[in-house]
Amino acid sequence: MNVRPTFPAPAPPARALRQSMAWIHAWLGLLAGWILFAMFLTGTASYFRPEITQWMQPELRSASVPAEQAAQAAIAHMQATTPDDQQWFIYLPDDRTAVTRVFARAKPNPEKPPARRPELKLDPATGQSLEARDTRGGEHFYRFHFQLQIPHPWGRWLAGVCAMFMLAAIVSGVITHKRIFVDFFTLRWSKGQRSWLDAHNASAVLALPFHAMITYTGLITLVAMYMPWPVKANFDKPDAFTAAAYGAPAEAKATGTPAPLLPVGPMIEAAGRAWSGDAPRTVVIRNPGDAASTVTLLRATAGRLNARPDSITFSGATGKELSRSPSPGPAIATAGVMLGLHLGHFAGPALRWVYFFLGLTGAAMVGTGLVLWVVKRRKPNAAPFFGLKLVERLNIGAIACLPSGMAAYLLANRLIPADLPGRAELEVKAMFWTWFGLAVVSLLRPARRAWIETLGLATVAFAALPVVNALTTDRGLVASLRTGDWLFAGFDLAMLAIAALCGLAALKASAKPKPPKKAARATAPVKASPAPAPARENVDAL
Amino acid sequence: MNNDRSAKQAAVWPVVARMTARALTALFGGYAAAAALASLLARLLPIAPAEASAWGMILSFLVFAGLALWAFHERRLTIVAAAIWGSALIAGAAVVLMGARA
Fold this sequence. Notes:
The complex is a heterodimer of chains A (542) and B (102).
Chain A: H1 13-45, H2 49-55, H3 67-81, E1 87-91, E2 100-105, E3 120-122, H4 137-147, H5 154-176, H6 193-206, H7 208-221, H8 223-226, H9 229-234, H10 238-246, H11 265-274, E4 280-286, E5 294-299, E6 311-315, E7 321-324, H12 330-343, H13 349-377, H14 386-400, H15 402-415, H16 423-441, H17 447-472, H18 477-483, H19 486-510, H20 515-523, H21 532-541
Antiparallel strand pairs in A: 1-2, 1-4, 2-3, 4-5, 5-6, 6-7
Helix pairs in contact in A: 1-4, 1-5, 1-13, 1-14, 2-4, 3-11, 5-7, 6-13, 7-12, 13-14, 14-16, 14-17, 15-16, 15-17, 17-19, 18-19
Chain B: H1 2-44, H2 49-73, H3 77-98
Helix pairs in contact in B: 1-2, 1-3, 2-3
């Protein structure tokens, strides 16, 4: 992108541009870094949102059921329990979710606003209501990732500002780099500041296309909130834009004439013919039991890059197709694909793991950048100034304490009694009390000890998860390996791997710095460095 | 000594004020300019209005990032403020005067 000045600048432009970009890169990264680290880590976990939810409700076991059967079973349940509602929402299971979720919206009542009905979980095969421990599951990490547990709409705005800082930091970081190709292959361990810079460069440059993509597409996921003005420039009513872009929603009024709802099986078959065999993921039924009832099917987006689902609406009384979503134009399709790239629902298991590891490199990039900010400004023989101490403490709180908080959320799921009222909120509280509490307690320790001990605690917490899981459920690692329950086995093994990663970080933090090398570095560029002069300049540039 | 300190303070405060103005221009002015320019693009592109709006929304963040970074690159604050707030005002006024297409 062209950010060269359009006016003659006093200094030679190429040099000045790199300097100003290096300066702004450091400040953008510092100001947004702590929140961005948390957004990256929880967002990365969210690639396994349905799997985390399944792990957090071990009472439920997945069973593969055709969409027609699951939809019809759910409709039978709704007809038996809430036949007079205005709208039913049925979320069908797929190979990553074990249950059918249903949600009903009551008819608007002029006397009192309809109470928001709770979402129910149904057995996909029978439509029976399922009981499982109350939990927010993987949804919690997902929501925190862009709402930051701050009341609406401020959490989303703060996340948006941080994402914008990230985008500007990526652009300015790329401009700062003159040796971007060399940095692909450069990682010098145990060289103090040089190593932190290498680690920051390696994690940033290796996955640069991913970081740029995930940041930009992240902004696009909430673009209607962040940047509604181009819509307002063309449309007096935002609904008109929605209708033009995605098709008009079914909103026929009830006639008051009762008419039975036809079976949805033939409608799902008809939709499958239009969707090259794809099944619907969501069924929305409006005015059930009325002559004007409609059944809207939303196409499953797994396996499709565009995350905006196609939809077809049928008459519930006659079974005729009433409308379908228009095929999107290039811009709407681009936005849908950007959404899809961010969410990663299209990805199969292998690609999902790639997403997961690339997400971790994002967290590593932000984390190493924050550490580098401190390491670069620390003088060997001078007392650290207040800002330096503050940043270091915030780094410990944001980077080293969050993993323990996330582990505490999962541990709480197994340790809080399954039938305790309000347990879902307690799980969430466990995460934040652990995270922030640990950050406060770590203030009592010297910074270096605080890094080691908080990371060590995270190691213990993640390693404890498979143990606690085995003790509190009948789906421990041994049992799940024996029965071929790959979701549970994979989850436990992933927790052990994360524990190992935290342990490695704690070990690295406890390694004694090497004073002779440090002294050498303070006076002259490291001799072993392949290109001493530019390397030195590069350090100074940050 | 006293003179020296007050001279130092006199030199520091304008720098802080100018940096604050620059940062506010980059953050809020950059947003306003990006929103106005993206809206103008959406209003003027001779394609379906929904498509034009979507292109405007998709490109707006790139414009925002570019303007915000440039605000910290260009040394003369008056030029930064004039260009960013000026383009926000002019493009915004043009969009408002033209009115919605649909």
